[in-house]
Specification:
ANL_N_sf, 32% helix, single chain, seven-stranded mixed beta sheet, EC 6.2.1.1, 23% strand, 20 helices, alpha/beta
Length: 651
């Protein structure tokens, strides 16, 4: 773990003459302390400043973790689509709300102003209403990364419907489960989508998914490619033929602060995916406050978040944060690898993005593919702020990201949060917080962190402590429940350590009070009484020049309790026998002998979810000899896991 500090580059201030929203680190400290000492005052002020309530709230907060009944801004009325669209369209109708960058760069990009966005959202909202969607109904959205997906989210919000976006890479079966659970009357999709030069057959998947869903009466289909698709007359409607029937303005439905805004399914450690439910005002405020202070968003900014709309990152930082703050969001349909590995640089340069927010998994891929000279031609001067999300970012990947995208002149914030937290909870503030490569840094405003000793359940105060990460006080954007399963909500987050929200992650607070995320606690390995984080070993292995990607798995061991196994893919073909010994030695040298893997398995690739996360569950099962893998519907390219399996069994 490095304690190297990277200060906000001096050239950063030249790029940003008006400075950040906060005037330096001391101001963060002061505001943070206020936000913890008087949370109601802090959040009430932020809510009134950043959101537009049509009726002011009378009570800032009620409820407790113990009772699982937290509620915010009671008595307040607002509408999320008004906050994200109308108020900017009124103030500055020609400001660009969305830049769409298609999968194939030859297809040309498209800009949509706030005034146009208001018309699109209103027409679609009118259409949904006409199809019987009412306040509180759940609409399922299964769409690629195109502006119409944003229209769909906001149209639901406009009429008080709850959106449930399902990542357009999920199978028909997974989609069906979510549609049935949500009892959706309407599903919104496209004829097809494009991603990485390939066609995604969205409408066909939806057709398969709804075969046995009696609840679905309408499938509204946006014509994206013009491909031939199956059609059921009466149930299926073309978006373009429908929306033109409805007015270019319909008034937004007044919503209570606590009315649900959306449902998003996410995997738990056990059981089927859980539908995490977020509220209107609290969620939106979390997006606004973190957008403003963590990402230092200003209205002139062009924010590029590569997170797909099917995941929480896409919800909060591709849609809600940039739009609630009135800047431009860049919607990128493609992948980092198509038509070449230079695509992210192309998008940033072409759209003159000021922010680029992505995941370490993409960065690791690019790092192994791109040489500096290949990307020097891109004009990245507008880029001011980089962000990383989703998993710990190894220091060497952090440095590469900072250098290859930011020429070491941007800030880079590693943002730690979860579907359930709604918005960032640990992150450095761009332009304000001194950065440490690989470290999520400090708690966000209003987030009262605790590190808990998992054995005693006691909070570990002070610095230089390791434990599980929890949050001590409610915050507005926390999930309110798991749909139809409040008990699971309580058991997962609040009943483990009474009085705390339990994140499920391990964390270490260093001598400066900076918080390092050590990965899920189920990924922490205990070898002969020594606890070691899988991500710590992975980071060290990634520093070895031969390693492309790796996953560390703890397996039961008669001698040491648990033993460390490393599954590694290499950048180049190396002699697997030699490299295995070398990697074990490397860990002995860089961390400690007890952290050295007992076994190293060399594979051509690692099994990943469609969003790019390594599926350790499958690796763990394979390593302990289990042949039953459970639900593998979320795993990308199953062939990889067969390949892995073959290698293991041949050893
Ligand atoms: O383990 C943490 C990891 O991702 C989990 C949350 O996953 P999800 O709900 O899918 O949301 C991902 C995007 C916010 C966390 O419990 N995680 C997320 N961000 C980080 C992270 N681990 C380390 N560092 C991060 N920056």
């Amino acid at each position: 773990m490095t304690s190297e500090i990277v200060h906000v580059p001096s050239k950063w201030r030249a790029k940003h003459p008006h400075g950040a929203h906060l005037n330096g680190f001391l101001e963060y400290r002061t505001l943070y302390e206020e936000s913890i000492r008087s949370p109601d005052t802090f959040w009430a002020k932020q809510a009134r400043e950043l959101l537009s309530f049509t009726q002011d709230f009378h009570t800032t907060r009620i409820g407790s973790f113990q009772n699982g009944d937290n509620a915010w801004f009671l008595g307040g009325q607002l509408n999320a689509s008004f906050c994200c669209v109308d108020r900017h369209a009124i103030q500055d109708p020609d400001r660009v709300a969305i830049i769409y960058e298609p999968d194939d760069p030859q297809d040309g990009s498209q800009s949509i102003t706030y005034a146009e966005l208001l018309r699109h959202v209103s027409r679609l909202a009118g259409c949904l209403r006409a199809r019987g969607v009412r306040k509180g109904d759940i609409v399922t959205i299964y769409m690629p990364m195109i502006p119409e997906a944003v229209f769909a989210l906001l149209a639901c919000a406009r009429i008080g419907a709850v959106h449930s976006v399902v990542f357009a890479g999920f199978s028909a079966g997974a989609l069906q489960d979510r549609i049935v659970d949500a009892k959706s009357k309407v599903v919104i999709t496209t004829d097809e989508g494009r991603r990485g030069g390939k066609v995604i057959h969205t409408k066909s998947v939806v057709d398969d998914a709804v075969k046995d869903c009696s609840c679905v009466s309408t499938i509204l289909t946006f014509r994206q490619t013009g491909g031939d698709v199956p059609w059921t007359v009466g149930r299926d409607l073309w978006w373009d033929e429908e929306v033109k029937k409805y007015p270019a303005y319909i008034s937004p439905e007044p919503m209570q602060s606590e009315d649900p805004l959306f449902l998003l399914y996410t995997s738990g450690s056990t059981g089927k995916p859980k539908g995490v439910l977020h509220s209107t005002a609290g969620y939106l405020l979390g997006a606004a406050v973190t957008g403003k202070y963590v990402f230092d968003i200003h209205q002139k900014d062009r924010f590029f978040c590569s997170g797909d709309i099917g995941w929480i990152t896409g919800h909060t930082y591709t849609v809600y944060a940039p739009l609630v703050l009135g800047c431009t969001t860049i919607i990128f349909e493609g992948t980092p690898a198509y038509p070449s590995f230079k695509r992210y640089w192309e998008v940033v340069a072409k759209c003159a993005a000021t922010h680029f927010y992505t995941a370490p998994t993409a960065l690791r891929l690019l790092k192994s593919k791109i040489k500096k000279e290949e990307i020097e031609c891109f004009d990245m001067r507008q880029l001011r702020i980089l962000g990383s999300v989703g998993e710990p970012i190894a220091p060497e990947i952090w440095k590469w990201f900072h250098n290859f995208f930011g020429s070491n002149q941007t800030t880079l914030t590693d943002t730690y949060w979860q579907t359930e937290t709604g918005s960032h909870v640990v992150a450095s503030l761009a332009g304000v917080t001194p950065m440490k490569p690989g470290c999520a840094s400090l708690p966000c405003l209003g987030i009262d962190l605790a590190i808990i000793d998992p054995v005693s359940g006691e909070e570990l105060t002070g610095n230089l402590v390791v434990g599980v990460l929890a949050i001590k006080q409610p915050w507005p954007s926390m999930a309110r429940t798991i749909k139809d399963n409040h008990d699971r909500y309580m058991d997962t987050y609040f009943n483990i350590y009474k009085g705390y929200y339990f994140t499920g992650d391990g964390a270490y607070r260093d001598h400066d009070g900076y918080v390092w995320i050590r990965g899920r606690v189920d990924d922490v390995i205990n070898v002969s009484g020594h606890r070691i984080s899988t991500s710590e070993i992975e980071s060290a292995l990634l520093e070895h020049p031969a390693v492309a990607e790796t996953a560390i798995i703890g397996v039961p061991d008669n001698l040491t309790g648990e033993a460390i196994n490393a599954v590694v893919s290499l950048k180049e073909r190396e002699n697997p026998i030699d490299i295995k010994d070398e990697l074990i030695l490397h860990i002995r040298r860089t961390i400690a002998p007890f952290a050295a893997p007992k076994a190293v398995f060399i594979v051509t690739d690692l099994p990943k979810t469609r969003s790019g996360k390594i599926v350790r569950r499958i690796l763990r099962k394979a390593l302990i000899g289990e042949r039953e893998f459970g639900d593998i519907s979320t795993v990308r390219e199953l062939s990889i896991y067969w390949d892995f399996f073959r290698i293991l069994t041949s050893i």
